[in-house]
Amino acid sequence: MLDDPLSRIVAQGIGVEPRDVDPDREFTDLGIDSIAGLRIMQAVQLEYGDHIPMLTIVEHSTLRRFVGHLRETYLDGRAVPPAPPRQPPAPPDPARVVPIAPGTGTPMYFLPGRPGS
Asked: How many domains, in total, are found in the chain?
């Protein structure tokens, strides 16, 4: 189990070597809190697909149960395949000036874009 890619993801998530993760110890005993669990699941989803629910790490709270569940439920018992490559997001539309209320006195404009851009 120590060579399993999922074991490496969990070990990275808590900052230890895979050999230092007891496969039968509860994740909470390993120091995995909600933030660490979220980061681990984000890495799992990035690698194997976002069809794997975030709560999987909570519902299967040891490395052995977690890896076993993922293999049985999402990977049909096979070795863990990588997720298909993700497509890069489409570029945003070029900025354009759109009048909000034309002809009402002081011009007011809206510049569409992504939040924070």
From this structure: 1
